[in-house]
Amino acid sequence: MSDYPLIIIGGGLSGLAAGIRFARFGQKVLILEKHSKPGGLNSYYTRQGRLFETGLHAITNYAGPEEKHAPLNRLFRQLKLSRQQFPIHQQLCSEVVFPGRASLSFSNSFDRLLEEIRDKFPRAIDRFLQLVMEIKELDAFRPQPRMPTRARLLAALDDELLVELLLCPLMFYGASEEHDMDFTQFAIMFRAIFLEGMFRPAGTIKDFLELLISQYKTFGGELRLRAPVLEIMQVSEQNGRRVHGVRLASGEVVTCDVLLSTIGHPETLALIPAPPNGATENTAALAGRVSFIESIALLPRAACGHIRNDRTIIFYNLAEKFFYGRPEEAVDLASGVICFPDNFQGLPTTDTIQIRVTHLANYDLWKKTADKQEAYRQLKEEWIKRSRQTVGKIIGNYPENVVYEDSFTPLTIERFTARSQGAVYGSPRKIKDGRTPYENLFIAGTDQGFLGIVGSMLSGVSIVNQCILQGQDSTRN
């Protein structure tokens, strides 16, 4: 008999959600996490006695408790959690800004975006409403050929500037593909950000992770931290394409009936030594190329009267045409995301203002400094300084008021998430049904195609329901 009916590789939000769902049915399950903290892309660290969140700007897919069929509420039912355990704060208002050209503000009321488009792009409003109807009716997870989004939007709206304004936030918050995105992915993100909206938990990501871990352990789930997987072990070809467990970096072997990986499709395949012909693809060809650099700055609120901080998130683009991909330089300052993590409805006013800034980055150029500590430090300092100058032109000059600053590069992302090349959103090729050439090895998380925190967690739940629980009654609430 195997040690576990199910092993999950990765203790991020998708892995924790999958573990809770499986354990709910009295099943024995083990989550293996390589780091000392769970959370994966959405974790935390402390500096100077203050907790800083990584990954989390805002959670998409907002829904009120009364919206029973909304993704957020479906997720909580599947995990047997109460919304009362998860107080939330909605965004104030966010904005897409192309300085000197156009802007669109939006909130958790879709009417605001409609009024913006009606006012600023009157020729396109009827076309936009038709597009919204198509998005609402689209089954984004039904297998279908890839549909490029830019060309489809241009044909639908007949306004290139409006197309770029709509694409900017959706690509920054979920596109794993350079320059374009599959229309089904666009539809998922459009619903999540524009139709449903953004929010954050009342507490920190640490509080949310502790809630999930407590629920997981209540159902009997086991979690092992500092337990990196060195190898996924295969059964001989005569018994079909199956895996039977994992070998940890410590040398320990743990067996299982089913293996679920949430660390990414190419990253999972890389753990399988000498796969049989046709069992796996070229992992290098599957790797994502979109990565970022991000900085966090703290400023005294009393010194920030001149800073524009009336938005929750500002997505900006200074170029004539919005570019989304691996830049030629180490960082692309022409576009970015400016997030004010304290600007959500109902959050108490603090003595400081936090500003988080995200830009596209070139993994290869950062990789060249991986073994050169001083060169890496200098490269970070140079680009963070240039970033401050650029962002200051949009929200007001702020660098002289910074009392604390930290930054993350593609190398940081790769180190702490194991995402190849620091590709936060994973491989451009999504595995929508979660299946691999091995009949008992499944993929969940970003590389399944679900996006955002709620989407990633629903991914873990859906694979457990559809592929692992099989004949059991996995549809009950």
Written account of the structure:
With 477 residues, the protein is α/β, with parallel strands linked by helices. It has three domains: 4-84 and 203-286 and 428-468, 3-Layer(bba) Sandwich (FAD/NAD(P)-binding domain); 110-196, no CATH class; 289-420, no CATH class. It has 14 helices and 19 strands. It has helices at 13-23, 71-78, 110-120, 125-137, 149-157, 160-172, 183-196, 205-218, 265-269, 283-286, 363-367, 373-395, 410-417, 452-468, and strands at 4-9, 29-32, 43-47, 50-54, 59-60, 88-90, 94-98, 102-106, 198-201, 222-224, 229-234, 243-248, 253-261, 291-300, 313-317, 331-339, 352-361, 404-408, 441-443. Strands 1, 2, 10, 11, 12, 13 and 19 form a seven-stranded mixed beta sheet that branches. A seven-stranded mixed beta sheet has the order 8-7-15-16-17-14-18. Helix 1 (13-23) runs parallel beside helix 8. The longest helix has 23 residues, at 373-395.
| Broad structural category | alpha/beta
Summarize the amount of helix as a percent range: 25-40%
State mean pLDDT (0 to 100 scale). 92
| CATH class annotation of the largest domain | Alpha Beta
CATH topology of the largest domain: FAD/NAD(P)-binding domain
Compute the CA-based radius of gyration: 22 Å
Q: In terms of quaternary structure, what is this?
A: single chain
> What is the number of helices?
14
